[in-house]
């Protein structure tokens, strides 16, 4: 039976490193921040919609800020693919905002590309998620503006606007 390219091109170190990283993310707590150097290379590059930093201390600061500003933050990795020295993780990030609607659990869906060094530590961590849809649209005042912008830019909205006599569905 033929295997997919992702199966034939797996680096066993990357597979092990991915499993360790998933376990870290799913159990992440402030106590784990002191151990990030076991998972991230000293000069690792971390980029998400709000941050672009290098080095374990800067990465630890991002996670520390998350714990300082959010209640009950937690990641659930829903899928992963390992190919060569890299992995792609699909995830859900659940949390409660301390200042706005703290009783409501928020959920952000996203994905992370990680590339490992020869020791199996993360050399590149690149998060992909839609800050507008997943976060800004849920905020008071800004949310209304973001939803209006999304509707205005939507292909459906522009098609309906260009055909005023066609009934909308």
Number of helices: 6
Residue windows where pLDDT falls under 50 for at least 5 positions: 1-8
- The CATH architecture name reads Roll
- The level 1 CATH classification is Alpha Beta
Q: Strand order across the biggest sheet?
A: 2-1-6-5-4-3
Work out the number of β strands. 6
User: Could you describe the largest sheet, including whether it forms a barrel?
Assistant: 6 strands, mixed
Beta-strand percentage range = 25-35%
The radius of gyration over CA amounts to: 20 Å
The helicity comes to 25-40%
Q: Which structural class fits the helix and strand makeup?
A: alpha+beta
Within the CATH hierarchy, at the fold level, what is the topology?
Answer: Nuclear Transport Factor 2, Chain: A
| Helix-strand topology string | HHEEHEEEEHHH
- The rounded distance between the terminal residues' Cα atoms is 46 Å
Shape: globular
Overall pLDDT score = 83
Number of domains: 1
Describe the structure.
By secondary structure, the protein is α+β, with helices and mostly antiparallel strands. The chain has a single domain, classed as Nuclear Transport Factor 2, Chain: A. It is 34% helix and 33% strand. It has helices spanning 5-8, 12-27, 56-69, 131-134, 142-153, 155-162; strands at 40-47, 52-54, 70-83, 86-97, 105-116, 122-128. It has a six-stranded mixed sheet. The longest helix has 16 residues, at 12-27. It is globular, with a radius of gyration of 20 Å. The N and C termini lie far apart (46 Å). Residues 1-8 have low confidence and may be disordered.
């Amino acid at each position: 039976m033929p295997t997919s390219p992702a199966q034939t091109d797996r680096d066993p170190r990357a597979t092990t490193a991915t499993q360790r990283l998933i376990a870290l993310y799913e159990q992440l707590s402030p106590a784990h921040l002191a151990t990030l150097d076991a998972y991230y290379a000293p000069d690792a590059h971390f980029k998400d919609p709000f941050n672009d930093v290098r080095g374990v201390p800067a990465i630890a600061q991002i996670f520390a800020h998350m714990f300082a500003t959010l209640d009950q933050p937690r990641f659930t990795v829903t899928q992963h693919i390992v190919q060569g020295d890299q992995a792609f993780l699909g995830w859900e990030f659940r949390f409660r905002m301390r200042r706005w609607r703290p009783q409501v659990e928020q959920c952000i869906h996203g994905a992370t590309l990680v590339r490992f060094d020869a020791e199996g530590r993360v050399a590149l961590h690149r998060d992909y998620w839609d800050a507008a849809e997943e976060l800004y649209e849920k905020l008071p005042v800004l949310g209304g503006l973001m939803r209006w912008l999304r509707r205005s830019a939507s292909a459906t909205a522009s098609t309906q606007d260009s055909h005023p006599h066609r009934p909308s569905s």
